[in-house]
Design a protein that fits this description.
alpha+beta, nine-stranded mixed β-sheet, four-stranded antiparallel β-sheet, about 15% helix, signal, plasmid, LGFP
Length: about 700
Amino acid sequence: MFKKNLITAAFMAAAIALGTLATSPPAQASAQVYNPCAKLSHGQTKFSGFGANRVTFATATDRNSNVLTITGCRRSGSGYVQEWQDWGYGGLRGFSPQNQAWEDTYRTPTGSFSFTEALGRRNPGTTLRYHTVNTMSRWGGERGATYNQYFEGAGGPSDENLWKYMNEGYYEQAAVINYNRLPDARTVQGASFAIFFHAGRVPSAGCVSTSLSTVTRLLKTNRPGDRIIMGAVDDVFTPYSSNPFGAITARYARSGGPAGILGVPAGNETGGLVRGGAQQLFRNGAITWSSATGARITTGAIRSAWLRAGAQNGALGYPTTEEVRGLRSGGAAQSYQGGAVLWTAGTGAHPTSGAIRAAWLRAGGQNGYLGYPVSDEIKGLKNGGAYQTFQGGSIHWSAASGAHITKGAIRSAWGVKSYERGVLGYPTSDEIKGLKNGGAYQTFQGGAIHWSAATGAHPTTGAIRTKWAAAGSENGVLGYPTSSELTLTNGGKYQTFQGGAIYWTPATGAHISKGGIRSAWAQHGYERGPLGYPTTDEFGVPGGIRQNYQGGSILWSSFTGARSLIGGMATKYDATGGPVLGFPTEEQTAALNGGLIQYFQNGAIIMTPSKSYFVTTGKIRLAWVGQGAEKGKLGYPTSAIVTVPGGAEQTFAGGSIFLSSTGVTTVKYPVAPAPAVVPSAPASPEPTPTASAPA
């Protein structure tokens, strides 16, 4: 590139000699490499030759030097051999260090570029597309459609006049270096133009120049797609080797080489990996290859997570894609044979694989309610299980249960029960919604957890859960659980529900407690009171409902409400045939001298101080009450009502009551015996007078 303000060779020579041209410090000054073809054969170049038939090198000892060694290499078998070597000049100020040569820098771009076009006075026999220069030949420097392209026309101030420079000896023959142009790259306006390999050996604004004979030789031998690698020695060559025709080298070249994401090589290409794979390390990552997956780049946090998981030897295997960015919340991901690694700034990078990954994908992956993983998969759980946490919950897996998601309130309730270590064990389903009143539930090896907005989340297990299920679960009379299972005395357990509770002991089994009967039981202290635990559910009896307990029963009717029968009262009630007495109308109450009495619709049961139980009914009971009940002269009953001639009778401590067949009651008290007549002692007979003796 000469441009409108061309610096003449004489002026440049003088400026270099006097040291008046501004320069930048070299990255590193190194000895010139005179065997670049051998370097290329061993994959010791940072820029790829892309397997071209011919590769030309143009290298300087450092970035600020414009004196170049130029070497032509031809592909031969599995390497390259040298065809020729010459010298020449690059840009006046040397090479650009970043594979980038903007206009007016007077630097030659560093990198690997193809040849596809040429120009000059006459075609020397090249197979490159050839432009025979005429008076109207221009190379576009003006911004627009012709920028960095050959065209014919008047041109503008920045367009190069090819006819003029050809006649001055510079473009007698020239090959176009495809910098900042297709097919190597999209053309960027203002990023330099007219970078040629041309005759007229002289420093320029960015071209490579050498002898006319060398340029002509290159044109005659090079085919479209052959390349030139140019730059400072340390920017072009590396001590690390790779296969110059291999997939890893090709992928590195497509990534931008040393100016790309990977930076410079940091190790040799090494084979012998699992399943015949290969890998090469670079400053910022690696390229890993297998026949099944091809060559893939791994870098940064995602690569670190892959290495933690065992790299290609682990569950993930080889990468199958490059890193994909622009995911939800600014995330990134890379896929592998056995899963993927996902990253966000907030969560870091974590792999997902196997059954846990499959469950996560069913939930929508990172776009679903679980979001991104926030941990790696953690193994070594109970029974060989594993789990992984995500932004919105976690996934647990075991061989017996499979992989299932837990989240929200249900997950919290499971955590209270010690997760998989507790009574519930591992989840056996995901959360299932659509229950009554908008509820949800999830099943586990040892039970389930149900949730509703009104009750929160609570587990059900064992016999209590079985009983609840038999009663219709949340759709039944009990509704949703309102507590977890709680421990009681004597090894008992209970759990509350919206409509009641279920109690269980090894001796009694599981039984439901609800409604008015439950309220009556509560008045006696639940299982701590004299009734103890329920031994049945509620069951129907004529006119009402009954529930039995260890220490008695509770009966309910719409007329009497719920009343309890405790101990001997219950036993006596059942022994006499409950329907005879009807439902209790009140609780048992204390009677005289430690006795008890309980009234029913049709009578009463009395416990005497000696703990004997007797039933009184009908007119006999009324008569007894009329006499003051146990506090009256009759006192406590001493017999049941028995049939006697002419009616029925019941005896009491102080008498009896007789009920005639005509319905007349007679209270009988014992007749007091007549006082015993004690005969008085007979009077002593008066003594018979006797004559007294004479004085």
